[in-house]
Input
Amino acid sequence: MPFPREVGVSRSGKVSLAGVAGGLFLLALVGCAGAGASGLSSPAGETLGVSPTRIHAEVEPGGTYSDRVSLINGGVRETWVRPLVWLMRHEDSRLSLVPSAQCAWVRLEKAEIFLPAGESRTVGLTVKVPEGESPGTYSLAVIFQQEDAGGEGLMARAALAVTLELVVLPPAPVGGRRGFPLFPVCLLVLTLLLFPALVVSFLKIGRRLLSG
Output
């Protein structure tokens, strides 16, 4: 099934909120601030839902985070959705979606998802942070863009979003886990190994002093 390559994208590469499904995406994104499933109705009467609406992931450079997102079609018509990933940025009290290198870190197991009427589908989401990335926090939007299920000249009708708060942690210390006191443990093990030999040596020295 064909899909439009761009939905509400300006020449600067930013996504206009007003250009995505006539503002329905804005309602979905605002709904992501709460917990649980979020739903909205398209002009054609279909009802879409997504759960969870918010994901918090903490990943070290070179690490991977995995989760699953459920998409619900509560309407009477089948539909397709296509996931897109954007970086959320606040500029002059306005929210904009821009492409960034961090968007490529997020992968969904399906490029297009078919939702039969009255059913739900679950799609896997994986975040892989490359080695050598600096620590930081990134707010990403995983947008599920609804498309018409048939006919020519497909037009976007509604969109749901999952906000992904991605925290890139500092790399773990070499030779040990993060925050794990490796040196005291090594010292304790070394002491336990040498203690019997030290006891025997002191006993031998004591016997020689007594016999002399």
Notes: The two ends are 98 Å apart (CA to CA). The first helix runs from residue 24 to 31. The longest strand covers residues 79-91.
